[in-house]
Write a structure and sequence with these properties.
The protein is of the alpha/beta class. The chain has one domain: Rossmann fold, CATH 3.40.50. The protein is 26% helix and 26% strand. It has 8 helices and 13 strands. A hairpin with a 5-residue loop joins strand 11 and strand 12. Helix 5 runs parallel beside helix 6. The longest helix is centred in the last third of the chain and has 11 residues. It is globular and about 45 Å long.
């Protein structure tokens, strides 16, 4: 079976060189048309070979064919769905873009090995859309500005092991980062600032059971942090079944 990685919120594609080494196929989803054009130029060879696919659309959980998308007037890589708050709306201009659900994209390309979610202000909705359609990749990550992301991973999907990646330290912690590629070779990659960093077993540290990870979140705090989860039992967490952690949230 092919290993397929989905990059939901690919931005300019700074994670893609690593993902291409970790999977047979990479599907990058980005709503901002300017950023998609940058990726198309950057990865033209991989697009031609079919190892990379770029979907220029807004990921939503509704049934609308087109939706309003908001692009920052000055900072080209800042854009979002849904609508910015009234205090920030003046900094954005509005465009109409095609809309697709996460399940539609997964059904088009195939079962995911890993899904990375970084959709500004919308990660929770994307998770819900996946789980409602019985899509539970072996590895998944989402940015967590509130505890609801962790709660959904435990309660709705029964993920049982977790790691934490601090967004601010990725470019330092994973500079000249060594990893084993999909074909078994040793590779090196330096993750730039604003990239998501590695996933799965490549993230430093041991997988943690849900209760221990909840205590880590309480200690570290939320914000610019990615929660990584797996539903494949590891030796170190074999005794970890997702207990009623939610009762403590």
């Amino acid at each position: 079976m092919k290993k397929i990685i989905y990059d939901f919120g690919a931005n300019i594609g700074d994670n893609i060189p690593y993902y291409l080494k970790k999977a047979d196929v990479v599907v990058a989803v980005e709503a901002n048309p300017a950023l998609c054009r940058m990726m198309e130029a950057r990865f033209s060879r991989e697009l031609k070979s079919g190892q990379l696919h770029i979907e220029n659309c807004v990921l939503t959980t509704n049934s609308e064919k087109e939706v309003c998308f908001y692009v920052h007037k000055q900072i080209h890589f800042v854009s979002q769905f849904p609508k910015p708050t009234d205090s920030y709306i003046g900094s954005f201009h509005q465009i109409m873009l095609p809309s697709l659900s996460p399940a539609t994209i997964v059904n088009k390309y195939g079962a995911p090995f890993y899904i990375k979610i970084d959709i500004e202000h919308y990660d929770q909705a994307i998770l819900a859309g996946l789980f409602q359609n019985d899509i539970y990749p072996q590895f998944i990550s989402a940015e967590s500005h509130n505890i609801d992301i962790f709660a959904m991973l435990v309660a709705c999907a029964r993920y049982n092991a977790f790691k934490l990646v601090d967004g601010r330290s990725v470019c330092e912690k994973y500079k000249n980062f060594s990893f084993i590629s999909n074909d078994g070779n040793s590779e090196i990659y330096s993750f730039p600032y604003h990239s998501a960093g590695p996933f799965g077993d490549d993230v430093s540290g041991n997988w943690m059971p849900a209760n221990d990870f909840f205590l880590l979140l309480a200690s570290e705090g939320l914000g610019w942090k990615d929660i990584h989860a797996t539903n494949i039992a590891q030796t170190s967490i074999d005794s970890c079944i997702a207990e009623p952690v939610i009762a403590h949230l």
